[in-house]
Every structure is written in C-alpha cells, then in structure tokens.
Amino acid sequence: MNSPVIGPATPEDIAGILEVQEANQEESGGTLSARFSAEWFADAIASGWVIVARDDDRIAGYVAFTPREAQAHIPIIQTMLRSGTNPGAYLHGPICVAEDYRGRGLASGLFAAEREHMDHAAVSTFIREDNRASRAAHLRMGMTQATSFEHDGVRYVVLEAAE
C-alpha cells in the first residue's frame, strides 16, 4: 500500500467517494449521519468543496466542506445550526477514511488541506457524542467542543476551529 496523495477531488473520484461513504454508513457499522448523492458530490467538486486522498486509482478518504447553505436542507444540519454554532463558519464534513487506511494520519492530512484551501476560516462540524475516536481525532486537529445537540434521540457534539 502506497502513501495516498491528498488533493482536490475530480468528477472521476465520485464513484470512489461513494464507495467510502457507503462503507461508513450506520447500517454498514459506520457513524455517518447523512448520505450524499453522486449529484451532490458532483456539484460540491465543481465548487471546489471536496478533497480526496488517492492511492493510485483508489480513494482512500475524502473530506467535504461547504458554506452552510449547501447543506442547510439536511435535517440534522438544521438542528446543528440551531444549537448556537458560529454563524460565520463554514461546515466541515463529512470526513471519511477507508477502514484499511485508518491510523495513518489521513484524516489530519485531509483536514490540513481543507484548512489551507479555506484560508483557515472559521469552521464547524458535529460528531456523535459516542464516537470517541472521531472526537479525539478532531481535537488533535485543533478543534474545540463548542456545544451539543440532540437529533432523532441521538446526542451530538459540535466542534469548531476559529480563524
């Protein structure tokens, strides 16, 4: 296994992104709280809002980051936005790393590339309260817990990074 290369996503990456996304859905044992369509990823990629980690032709991981409006139609995002998050922050996530690439620093590398791309603007995200690994990873990336909320009976924490 090579070291994946981190860079902007292209339309050719969508199938690989969807594969990693599906493997991280709750019904597959993952902790993702939303499912994005190929069309959503195509629009996000065209807008420059997705970064991937590529290992040859395979997508090892990805991160999406958007203005609030791009995800405001999603019920859990609506709940998060009402929880008192920084109104000027862009949204970080989802961030997913394929299982066989975890523990290699890819999430941190993807987040660093995202922060660089966004010129270190303020950012908000949410994570299931019981997802200790993701919370710890985001804290190591420099985010801090800002607030929490409940959606469909599940508790989430909101993490933010300032400009």
TrEMBL record:
Keywords: Transferase. GO terms for molecular function: acyltransferase activity, transferring groups other than amino-acyl groups. InterPro entries: Acyl_CoA_acyltransferase, GNAT_dom. The keyword Transferase applies. Residues 4-163 form the N-acetyltransferase domain. The keyword Transferase applies. This is Acetyltransferase (GNAT) family protein.
